[in-house]
Amino acid sequence: MTYTTLLPSVLIGAVASARSMTPMAALAGARLAHRRTPGRLVLLDHPLFRFGALAMGAGELFGDKMKSAPDRTVFLGLLARVLSAGIAGAALAPRGRERQGAALAVGTAVPMAYLTLRGRKRAMRAIGQTNSGLIEDALIVGAGLAVVAWAVGRR
């Protein structure tokens, strides 16, 4: 087993840096499609989690466009990214390497939150909050779905 087997965990951490709930929503969607993740995570088998994660993912996409939306680097925003990246990183890691996957995902999500915020602020100045948010949504949701699909398809 090589370290490239942990690449999905790193990539899902990058997704969490921009949209904290997207990794959880993508995992929930995979579970609803009866796809298994490489890492063992019992949390993913609870219907309340699955539907809650989907609802929170959708809610975040709407809330992000509001003028009152806080920066992703405030304490609660970073906490949400740490939790989401950790859970998703563990789920996408090979069985027995869940802790490493979680650590890599969190280690990617936190510093990248500052980088993605910087990019978003530049885009907001150029094309506005709503347009920049919609573009970021499309990129990040697409990336999250692609990473999860790749990881569950590899097992």
Blueprint of the fold:
Elements: H1 7-18, H2 22-32, H3 47-63, H4 75-92, H5 98-127, H6 129-154
Helix pairs in contact: 1-4, 1-5, 1-6, 2-3, 2-4, 2-6, 4-5, 5-6
Keywords:
155 residues; mainly alpha; 74% helix
Structural overview:
- The chain is mostly helical and 155 residues long.
- It has six helices and no strands.
- Helix 1 (7-18) packs parallel to helix 5 (98-127) and helix 2 packs across helix 6 (129-154).
- The model has no long low-confidence stretch (mean pLDDT 91).
Category by helix and strand content: mainly alpha
Q: Report the total helices.
A: 6
Pattern of helices and strands: HHHHHH
Unreliable segments of 5+ consecutive residues:
none
Termini distance?
Answer: 13 Å
Mean pLDDT: 91
Proportion of helical residues: over 70%
How much beta, percentage-wise? under 5%
Gyration radius, rounded: 15 Å
The biggest beta sheet, please?
Answer: none
Q: What general form does the structure show?
A: globular
Can you count the beta strands?
0
Question: Summary?
Answer:
This protein is an all-alpha fold and 155 residues long. It is built from 6 helices and no strands. It is globular, with a radius of gyration of 15 Å.
